[in-house]
Each structure stands twice: as C-alpha cells, then as structure tokens.
Amino acid sequence: MKLAWFLASFPLALTLATGTAAAQDDFDLGKTVAVCTTCHGEEGLPVTTDIPILWGQQFYYLYVQLKDYKAGRRANDIMETIAADFDKKQMKALAKYFSEKPWPRITITKDSDLARRGRAEAGAGECPQCHNKYMGDSRVPRVAGQNEDYLRRTMLEFKNKVRLNSPSKSSLMKSFGDEEIKDIAHFLATL
To answer: What's the CATH class of domain 112-189?
Structure first.
C-alpha cells in the first residue's frame, strides 16, 4: 500500500521539487530590487513618506522583517505577497543588497518644540538603550532620519497590536498617547 502511494505520488513530488528548485534558480536580484524600488525608491528615497527607507538599514533587521512578512507577524498586503515566495537565501541576498547602500538623507522641516518633546518622550521610554543612539545595531533598526509618517504608523501598529513581531515594543507603545508617538516620530525623523 505504501509503495503504491509512493509510486503514485512520485511524479507530483518530482514536479514540485524541480519547480521549486527552478524558481529558486530563476531568482534575479536585479529584477527583484527593481520591484522593491517601485515603492522604496531607486535612490533610496521611498515614493511616499509612509514607506520605510531600506538603503543603509541593518542587514539582520531587514532579513528578519522579510521573514516576519512571510510568517504573518507583520501585516502589509503588498509585502506579505512579495515575501511569500522568498526563501532564506533570497531574503538574505536582498537584506545584504539594501544594507550595503548608503543611507539617504530625507528633507524635513524641523519643528523644534515637537522635536524637543519627542526627545524627552523617547528618553523616558528608554528608546536609546535598544536603538543605539537611533543608528541601529544589527537586530535593531536605524530610526534616525527615517520617514516620519512611517515611524508614526509603525509605532501605532505596535501599540494597536497590528504588528506582532516585537511584544516588548507593543507594551512600550501602549504607554504612549498618540500625540506623544507623533512627537517621537518627528524627533527621530529629524536626526
């Protein structure tokens, strides 16, 4: 019985295995990066301010985020769909590519009052302890100079448990009001 099942299943298994291997062999980093740049920008500046800067971001952080999109720990219809087809090697290749690019400088008008409040609130939340003076460190993302709208959206996603890949961040964000989160996002974006 087991032999009959194996023989009947073998052609299907072989097709799936060779199809998967062929798909992995067909991975073209350049073409994949071209897809990424439609939102994240060709020169590292995203097309809208609620999309994160990837250029110069931490390698391991980028890799983990792709894994989290694939696993559903981060919610974004576009990114979940894109990451669903990547294997570990492909995710690492993309993370390496973007991490080796220079961090682009965004243009933002600094509101000194907002930035001052944001600095105090971030300090009270002990944000610099993990974010290494906001420049990131391997597993922790760089947030200095990141898009303000993206930062605000991300902190609210943690607060409202839309983003599930850092329970400690969710707990911390719950301690801030929405206006405080807005201040922190402005402070970080203007660094």
So the answer is: mainly alpha
Q: Residue 63 CB: number of other CB atoms within 10 A?
A: 20
Fold of 29-99: Cytochrome Bc1 Complex; Chain D, domain 2 (1.10.760)
What is the residue extent of each domain of the chain? 29-99, 112-189
The closest alpha carbon to 175, from 134, 122, 139, 129, belongs to 122
Q: Is the pTM of this model over 0.90?
A: no
- Alpha-carbon distance of 165 to 158, in angstroms, equals 9
What is the full per-residue pLDDT of the chain (191 aa) written as tens digits? 333 333 333 333 333 333 333 345 679 999 999 999 999 999 999 999 999 999 999 999 999 999 999 999 999 999 999 999 999 999 999 999 999 999 999 999 999 999 999 999 999 988 988 888 899 888 899 999 999 999 999 999 999 999 989 888 999 999 999 999 999 999 999 99
Instruction: Read off the tokens for 63.
Output: 């890799």
